[in-house]
Amino acid sequence: MSTLRFALAGNPNSGKTTLFNELTKSTAHVGNWPGVTIDRREGTFKDGNIEAEIIDLPGIYSLSPYTPEEVIARNYIVEENPDVIINIVDVTNLERNLYLTTQLLEMDCPMVVALNMCDQLEKHNDFIDRIGLEKALGVPVVRISALQSHGIDKLMKKAVLAAAVNRKSSSVLRNTVLEKPIEEIEMRLLEQGAKHPLHKAIKIIEGDAHVQADDNLRKLKDDLIADVDDIEALIADLRYKHITKHYSPFLRKSLKPGELTTSEKVDKIITNKYLGIPIFVVIMYLIFHLTFGENLFFIEGLPSPGVLLQSGAELLIENIGDLTTDFLIATGASEWTYSLLVNGIIGGVGAVLSFVPQIILVFFFLSVLEDSGYIARAAFIMDRLLKRFGLSGRSFMPLLMGFGCSVPSILATRTLDSERDRRLTMILIPYMSCGAKMPIYALFATALFKQHSDIAVFGMYMLGIAVAVVSGVILKNTVFKDSKTPFIMELPDYHRPRARNLLLHVWEKLKGYIIKAGTIILVSTVFIWLLANFNFKLQMVEQNSIDSILGTIGNVIKHFFTPLGFVGKADGWKPVMAILTGFIAKEAVVSTLGVLYAGGAAGDALLQTIASNFTSASALSFMAFNLLSVPCMAAVSALFAEMKSAKWAWFSVAFWVASAWVASFLVYTFAGLF
Ligand code: GDP
Question: Is residue 207 a contact partner of residue 231, using CB atoms and an 8 Å limit?
């Protein structure tokens, strides 16, 4: 017997991935669907004598031909004949999910409906009449919770049984005004021996150009529906009417119509048209206040938890430096060994590591927001704002992820429908200040803004958002004219963040930092130390002098940065070199400054030299340039891969440099006025 093939189909966020992982465990592997950058996941389910290959189709809302996901899903079913479609339906969004179900039913393929998130139903004391729905739909229905792995066995048993039956397609459009046209076209298709004639007949009537039909058939269709204005709207309307009349009553809610759940009540305030954005801003400010605030809740002399942790880390690194120095003196090490170890490595890598506690704290707070369900609200609130500027709300998830790291965010744009929206979003992602830029803000804010360092850091994040909005508007009205996609997004219930998730998130971040500090940053620090201590003739020169390789190069390109204010001093080439190493990894900005300015003395000494070499205005301008210009090497290579066009990738790079230059210039000029 050949192995059964089950295709998982369902809306985005219906829990498809969770179910897929649950079914396939470690056998899952990810590839690409031909020709597009959409993941194709496959794996094997094995339990007792049941064995099946599971194919996870892309998440879709319908079977129209408007997005690559939809085309992939329907082509797979039509051309590759899976043995069963497992249609996963999120019961908490029953109507919208069943809209897809009504279309899948029109295919001549066995099907089982998995009602997912049934744990949520129980929590709300709601009830779904499974047997009633099963009768109404005409296919087996199973209640499951993919998250708690309930009902999975039953689902697979029903799927195996369904595979043995030759199911005939059915449609909710029968017994409607479209009955006749559908039947006539279906008959013709049957005569031609077409597969899935009902599905194809309906698609032809909808005017779907992707479905093959000869001229006669198209002509017949035009005659049959000559008196219908907007056929797509009519069909959608008929489907929804059928769902609300014949399927919705099987879901019995404990709340009376109009009554609100606790989450909905909270959302009345949090996503309120006027309060939403101020609340978002206050929450973000609070995070930065707790992490970078010198005076917690404005109480003089009471440091915030972040500042307290940071000074502890600094002390530790200073001690390591002192210890190493003593050791080197005692062993009579050569001067350059001392310089490389203490000035180079401990200074550079140490400067980055001393900010790790604050980074952990910010990620901890962001994870709390994410896990509690607030981040989804933030996306919803921002979508409303962005729509006014003509931007798509779907971009917001990848953008939001940009606060963590640009690389996965650039990959996440794959969920967007149009190539234009994808490209536009990719350009905007690096403006969302990623975690690696935080040490730069932390260093400058602590060195120059003392009492107001939390505001300075918070301001940088807001500046990134503002530049993204302005750039979005500019690009949307010039190079990316008229692209629009609807945004559908559900708000999950609020819940208490789970400690395990939080720890996992924070650990992931921390691990990334430690690995980076031990690899890229260590190597670039040594490299910078070499370039800062030798001249082009490879002779050792006075540490960090203008005669060094770095000094010579930096001294030339610094003129590009003169209007931005941070290169006025004699050693103005130093910040320029820091910016350049930032293109490798943003953490390297701080480590380079550590090597170049303080000669390895992290902590207070570094802060003092920064304070004496920058003014408030030039510090802000420097931070802004690092925030807005080209992100790190990893993000740029992800960009080149995902843009699928070197022209657009280079355009993005040029756009980042230009926007960073203009914004920093404005920041410097504006800040100089005060
Ligand atoms: P996909 O977009 O369809 O692949 O959906 P995911 O598998 O990523 O799930 C979306 C969200 O729903 C995640 O936060 C899951 O943890 C959650 N989820 C999935 N299945 C269940 C379930 O059975 N019950 C509950 N409460 N949440 C679930």
Answer: yes
Which pTM value belongs to this model? Answer: 0.60
**490 in ligand 1 pocket by Cβ < 6 Å?**
no
Ligand 1 center from residue 116 Cα (angstroms): 8
**What residue type is 61 in one-letter code?**
Y
Q: Which two tokens stand for residue 108?
A: 């001549």
Q: Looking at the domain 179-252, which fold is it?
A: Helix Hairpins (1.10.287)
Q: Is residue 87 lining ligand 1, measured as CB closer than 6 Å?
A: no
pLDDT at 393: 63
CA-closest residue to ligand 1 atom 4 = 17
Please name the residue whose Cα sits nearest to atom 22 of ligand 1.
Answer: 117
Pocket residue to mutate for ligand 1, from 8, 11, 13, most atoms within 8 A of Cβ: 13
pLDDT category at 475 given cuts 50, 70, 90 is confident
| Amino acid symbol at 234 | L
Q: Where do the DSSP E strands lie in 136-262?
A: 141-143, 251-252
At the topology level, CATH places domain 4-163 in Rossmann fold (3.40.50)
pLDDT of residue 544: 64
- Summarised one tens digit per residue, pLDDT across range 328-342 is 888 887 877 877 777
Residue 610 CA to residue 604 CA, distance in Å, equals 10
**Does the beta carbon of 119 sit less than 6 angstroms from any atom of ligand 1?**
yes
Q: Where are the domains of the chain?
A: 4-163, 179-252, 280-672
Report pLDDT digits (tens) over 611-647: 888 889 999 999 999 999 998 877 888 888 888 888 9
